[in-house]
Amino acid sequence: MIVSDVMTRKVLSVAPDETVEQAANLMLRHGISGLFVVDSKGTLVGVVTEGDLLRRDELGTERHRPWWLRVLVSPGRQALDFTRAHGRKVSDVMTPEVIGVSSNTPLEDVVETMEKQRIKRVAVTESGHMVGVVARSDLLRALLSHEREKKPPQAQEDDRTIRTDILAALEAASWAPMTTLNVTVASGVADVWGTITNPDERRAICVIAENVPGVKEVHDHLVYVEPYTGTVIDSPDDHP
To answer: What single string gives the DSSP state of each residue in 118-149?
Structure first.
């Protein structure tokens, strides 16, 4: 399998000039641990995660080194730590170095990258512009479809077409929460994943997938999360 088979195409991102508070709200609202930072031209410029927000003055967790250690740390490093603890913009706290892969990268290479870099998600880019993301959860979803993928090459190509058609149909629905939705298809069986903030979206999303030609069955893995509070109200386990 390659990246385009499993990646999430609609990526929830934040602009570098948005505030730290706005970024934190987005992460909490959508139940995610990080956001890619994209500028006004669509160029990927960084990533901000929960870890980048741990050492904050507001929390009383700003890094305070003993005097003897401050002597060993360069003024530049101390200035950077101060900015990350007190800065108000995403650009102040984000990590500018972002690891990216192309849409035709084998998943084996993606897993190796995640292991070596100890990261949870990898940006999918084309000419510096972000076109998707592959997270560990996307790989787990692909793993669940593994047995159904033992089929002739032509069938695999058909599954890719079905997945593309499902994603296109979902994108055409203005109400669909594409930033949290993803779909995997194996042997004509579609697995729909993601979080929803309205219980009525669950059946509508499944109906869209069911109506795509070639789909034999749809498995619902959607999780209903209470908006803003992040409380899980309804999960796939509640829907046999």
So the answer is: T-SEEEEEETTEEEEEEEHHHHHHHHHTTGGG
Are the beta carbons of 90 and 15 closer than 8 angstroms?
A: yes
Residue 151 corresponds to which tokens in the numbers above? 């089929």
pLDDT band for 80, please (50, 70, 90 cuts): confident
- Cα separations in angstroms, 66 against 80, 90, 91, 128, 176: 17, 28, 28, 41, 51
Give all domains of the chain, ordered by start, each with its CATH number. Answer: 1-136 (3.10.580.10), 145-238 (3.30.1340.30)
Q: Which amino acid is at 78?
A: Q
In this structure, the strands spanning 13-14 and 189-196 are unpaired
Distance CA 214, CA 81 (A): 54
- Asked whether the whole model's pTM tops 0.90, one would answer no
Alpha helix ranges (H) inside 8-152: 20-30, 67-72, 75-86, 90-93, 107-117, 136-144
Whether residue 93 contacts residue 53, with contact meaning beta carbons closer than 8 Å, is answered with yes
Q: Which two tokens stand for residue 104?
A: 């035709």
The tens digit of pLDDT for each residue in 31-72 reads 888 899 999 988 999 999 888 888 787 777 777 777 667 767
Give how far the C-alpha of residue 18 lies from the chain's centroid of Cα atoms, to the nearest Å: 19
The residues, any chain, with a CB within 8 Å of residue 11's CB and separated by 6 or more, are 36, 130, 132, 133, 179
Please give the Cα distance from 14 to 164 (Å, whole number). 26
